[in-house]
Write a structure and sequence with these properties.
Shape: flat
Order of helices and strands: HEEHHHHHHHH
Number of helices: 9
Strand content: under 5%
Structural class: mainly alpha
Radius of gyration: 22 Å
Oligomer: single chain
Distance between the termini: 86 Å
Helix content: 40-55%
């Protein structure tokens, strides 16, 4: 295990005492107080911004505003930086590990080896844990960059570990919704229903399991029966509610246009 020394120094979980899954009491903190911030974290300006060099997911329009916001941002920033360092150490250790029957020449890409079943291999399982805790850290920040980064990690974790021991299927739909990507959220729910459960070779990203632009107007009765988690059902309900609101707004707009037309013609 000498090759993993660097990762252990960086604070990775002890490989001889790994839990089957993250602490059941661990909750995902969603900071959604004022919607996603796309500009300066302090003043919300959207032009001439630069990202924080430590966390990489918070932007500022000036060094002055970054300094003013430092006290509010420091805890989340430090946490993200710390968890990212752990993840990078884990990935480096896996890539440096000697080729064997578990990892192959590239554990992250080689089909038929560890790729797709990371949790089954004790030697590379800590990578998933480190990545999971980075996702949790990212979701403490209320910016679009943070949510996009968390989503990217979550989707790749599904590719690396089909069994989804970390429960990313419960987190990803909400991230799509927060980003305003309702259709992608619906497609992901359909994908999980069709391909994501059990020992299915059609993992997320598999070319034979591409789910794109499914009809979100279809009935939900049979759909709900196949979704095992409340978070997925809530995401589905929110999509339907948004559609009803959009339809109501469209109908109201059409009625208003028709009324205006009649007034102009009278």
């Amino acid at each position: 295990m000498r090759e993993f020394k660097a990762a252990e120094v960086a604070g990775s979980p002890n490989r001889h005492d790994l839990p089957h899954k993250p602490n059941a009491n661990q909750t995902v903190v969603f900071n959604v107080s004022n919607g996603l911030i796309e500009g300066c974290h302090f003043c919300r300006a959207t032009t001439n911004t630069s990202r924080c060099g430590a966390c990489r997911v918070v932007s500022y329009c000036s060094r002055e505003h970054q300094a003013i916001d430092r006290a509010a941002h420091k805890a989340a920033c430090s946490k993200i930086k710390k968890e990212r360092a752990k993840l990078e150490a884990e990935e480096k250790a896996i890539r440096a590990h000697a080729v064997d029957d578990h990892t192959g020449t590239n554990a992250f890409q080689e089909v038929g080896k560890a790729m797709g079943h990371f949790w089954k291999h004790q030697i590379i399982r800590p990578h998933l844990l480190a990545r999971y805790f980075l996702v949790l850290a990212l979701l403490r920040v209320n910016t679009k960059h943070a949510v996009e980064a968390a989503l990217e990690h979550g989707l790749d974790m599904l590719r690396l570990n089909h069994e989804d021991n970390q429960g990313l299927r419960c987190i990803i739909p909400s991230l799509y919704l927060r980003l305003g990507r309702d259709q992608d959220c619906y497609d992901h729910l359909v994908w999980w229903l069709l391909y994501g459960r059990g020992d299915n070779k059609h993992h997320w990203g598999h070319p034979d399991a591409v789910v794109k632009d499914y009809n979100a107007l279809e009935p939900v009765a049979d759909f709900i029966k196949g979704l095992p988690d409340l978070s997925q059902i809530v995401a589905l309900a929110l999509i339907k509610i948004r559609m009803l609101i959009d339809n109501a707004s469209a109908i109201s707009l059409l009625k208003g246009a028709e009324f205006l037309r009649k007034e102009l013609l009278s």
